[in-house]
Design goal:
This protein has 13 helices and 17 strands. It is α/β, with parallel strands linked by helices and 424 residues long. The structure holds zinc ion (ZN). Zinc ion is lined by residues 58, 60, 119, 211, 310. Its EC number is 3.5.4.1. It comes from Puniceibacterium antarcticum.
Length: 424
């Protein structure tokens, strides 16, 4: 009998060490120098980066791949995107949403993205969005961990059935509580919604992930209430604030008080650099604000910060490929995370730190963990961020689910090498 069902040999791990990975069933059972071991299947990763799978903690799977339906977002703003989606969700069928989402999940798998937290709009009374995404969750379960967040896109209170529908979605099996306090009618209602949502989560034993302060208004301070309610209700470690873009524009003295409160409550942060660099600052003349939250400052306080993708080809964002390295690449630039340690951290943010935010059990390249990994055509983690290279192999729960042939460019130049790989 072979020692392993699958052996990934010769790879370089994200921390720079080299190691073979032996897999049996859906588990990593050995890691280190495994020369001479017998395996049913071998992936030769010599000289390539072998990483745990990419994780996206912020996405909208119900809206993905709908770009241009019913129209293109002419102003490029968050608010026009919300209104376009408001039209589309009335007419989109369950089948159509399932099909779009499954197509996106195929893209994700091919890019080594094997865990996604998706918000699901709970505004429409028909809740077809929820029906569709629960079906997608069931279908992809063998190869992709999909968490669903009940998201009252039009407001918990601003939409007449907002609160009732959020509770219905949770009853149907959606198991993270979402919200959008900056979109409620007033600051007071926004604050009340944060309190209400945290109480719902506490009662039901669920995590919380709010779209929080996705605004250029420096006075949008719902993150303060979110940290307070997390502390008050004992929800430490299971609450996330997505976006937090108003923090970009806040008074720095106020932020110096705010960040320790977020750290104390163990609220994590999920900035979404691709979407926020395009959506924010649209009302500015010059200089235009970047609208990305204060990533390095939060990390310096010990706050867990991930990178989310948010959108791919939908009413808010026209581009996107399902590549979390695009997200890390943009985040690195906008947050100016250019030191070697910070570039490495950007890779960790789209893998281990995002996994921590989602609370993924048995994640990582360690003995006993779930055998999910990705082999990249890069020499190390920082090079992966720079190249955003091909995923040569993707393994999910012990099974090879995607393969890609190495494809170097072939040069035809006298006196120059015959091929180019751009590693350095
Ligand atoms: Zn979002």
């Amino acid at each position: 009998m072979a020692d392993f069902d699958l052996l990934v040999k010769g790879g370089t791990l994200p921390d720079g060490t080299e190691g073979d990975i032996g897999i049996r069933g859906d588990r990593i059972i050995a890691i280190g120098a495994l020369a001479g071991a017998q395996a049913g299947e071998v992936i030769d990763a010599t000289g390539d980066l072998v990483a745990p799978p990419f994780v996206d903690p912020h996405f909208h799977l119900d809206a993905t791949l709908s770009y241009g339906t019913p129209r293109i977002n002419a102003s490029g703003t968050l608010l026009e995107g919300i209104s376009l989606w408001g039209e589309l969700r009335q007419t989109a069928t369950v089948d159509e949403m399932v099909e779009r989402a499954l197509t996106y999940c195929d893209w994700a798998v091919s890019m080594g993205l094997l865990a996604i937290r998706s918000h699901v709009d709970t505004t429409p009374d028909h809740l077809n969005t929820v029906t569709a995404m629960l079906e997608v969750q069931r279908i992809v379960k063998p190869y992709l961990d999909l968490q669903l967040v009940a998201f009252p896109q039009d407001g918990l209170y601003r939409s007449p059935t907002g609160r009732a529908n959020l509770l219905r979605a949770l009853d149907m099996g959606v198991n993270v509580v979402g919200g959008i306090p900056h979109f409620e009618r007033t600051m007071d209602e926004g604050r009340a919604s944060v309190r209400d949502l945290c109480e719902i989560a506490a009662e039901r034993g669920l995590p919380v992930d709010l779209h929080c302060d996705e605004s250029d208004d420096p006075l949008s301070r719902h993150i303060e209430t979110l940290a307070y309610e997390t502390q008050r209700l004992g929800l430490q470690g299971r609450v996330a604030g997505s976006h937090l873009t108003s923090m970009h524009s806040m008074d720095t003295y106020y932020v110096s008080k705010l960040l320790p409160l977020i750290a104390e409550a163990q609220v994590s942060a999920i900035p979404n650099p691709l979407i926020n660099i395009t959506l924010q600052g649209r009302h500015d003349s010059y200089p235009k604000r970047r609208g990305l939250t204060r990533v390095r400052e939060m990390q310096a306080q010990g706050i867990t910060v991930g990178w989310g993708q948010d959108c791919v080809r939908d009413p808010w964002y026209s581009l996107g490929t399902g590549d979390m390295l695009d997200v890390a690449f943009m985040g690195l630039h906008v947050a100016q995370m250019t030191s070697p340690a910070e570039m490495q951290r950007c890779f960790d943010m789209v893998t281990v730190e995002n996994a921590r935010i989602m609370g993924l059990a048995d994640y990582g390249l360690v003995k006993g963990a779930v055998a999910s990994l990705v082999v990249l055509d890069a020499g190390n983690a920082t090079e992966a961020v720079r190249l955003r290279p091909d995923r040569l192999a993707v393994v999910s729960k012990g099974r090879v689910v995607s393969r890609k042939t190495r494809n170097d460019a072939r040069l035809a130049l006298d006196g120059r090498p015959g091929s180019v790989r751009r590693r350095h």
